[in-house]
C-alpha cells in the first residue's frame, strides 16, 4: 500500500469516526428532547433501512413502508427533522474535513490564476448590490 493510499484510508477512518460521534450525540439529544419512543422509532427505521441497502428484500421493504405509513403526521415530521439534522451534520463534517485537507496541503489545491488583491470583493459587491452597506462586526465588513 502506498503512503497516499494509507493516508487516504486514515482520513476516511477519521471522518467515519467523526460522523459516528456526531450520530451518537444527535441520538442523545433526540432522547433528551424528543423522548425515548421517537429515538427508538428512528433507530428501528435507520437499522432496517441500512439492512435493506445491504441485502435488498421486497417483503422487508413493503413492511417498512407500511410501518412508515402508520406513523402519525406529527411524529413523522419530528422523525424527518431528526434524519435531516443527521445528514446536515454529515455534510458539515465532510466540508470541514475538505477544508482541513486544503489547509494542510496547499500545493495540491493551488489558487486559481488571476489577480488577488485585497478589497476586490468589496468592489464587486458594490457593483452588484449598490445600496448594501456592510455592518462592522458582522463579518460583512470589507475593511
SSE map:
Elements: H1 3-34, H2 36-54, H3 58-69, H4 73-104, H5 120-128
Q: Outline the biggest β-sheet.
A: none
Strand content: under 5%
Structural class computed from helices and strand pairing: mainly alpha
Low-pLDDT regions: none
The run of helices and strands is HHHHH
Distance between the termini: 49 Å
Percentage of residues in helical conformation: over 70%
Number of domains as seen in the coordinates: 1
Q: What is the mean pLDDT?
A: 81
Overall 3D geometry?
elongated
Backbone CA Rg: 23 Å
Number of helices: 5
Please count the beta strands (DSSP E, at least 2 residues each): 0
What would the keywords be for this entry?
single chain, 143 residues, mainly alpha, elongated
Structural commentary:
By secondary structure, the protein is mostly helical. It has 5 helices and no strands. It has one domain. Helix content is 73%, strand content 0%. The longest helix has 32 residues, at 3-34. It is elongated and about 55 Å long.
Short description:
This protein is 73% helix and 0% strand. With 143 residues, the protein is mainly α.
Amino acid at each position: 500500500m502506498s503512503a497516499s493510499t494509507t493516508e487516504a484510508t486514515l482520513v476516511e477512518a477519521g471522518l467515519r469516526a467523526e460522523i459516528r460521534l456526531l450520530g451518537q450525540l444527535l441520538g442523545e439529544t433526540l432522547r433528551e428532547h424528543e423522548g425515548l419512543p421517537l429515538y427508538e422509532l428512528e433507530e428501528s427505521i435507520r437499522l432496517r433501512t441500512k439492512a435493506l441497502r445491504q441485502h435488498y428484500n421486497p417483503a422487508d421493504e413493503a413492511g417498512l413502508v407500511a410501518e412508515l405509513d402508520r406513523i402519525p403526521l406529527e411524529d413523522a415530521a419530528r422523525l424527518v427533522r431528526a434524519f435531516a439534522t443527521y445528514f446536515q451534520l454529515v455534510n458539515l463534517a465532510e466540508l470541514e474535513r475538505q477544508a482541513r485537507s486544503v489547509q494542510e496541503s496547499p500545493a495540491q489545491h493551488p489558487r486559481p490564476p488571476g489577480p488577488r488583491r485585497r478589497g476586490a470583493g468589496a468592489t464587486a459587491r458594490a457593483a452588484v448590490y449598490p445600496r448594501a452597506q456592510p455592518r462592522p462586526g458582522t463579518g460583512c465588513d470589507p475593511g
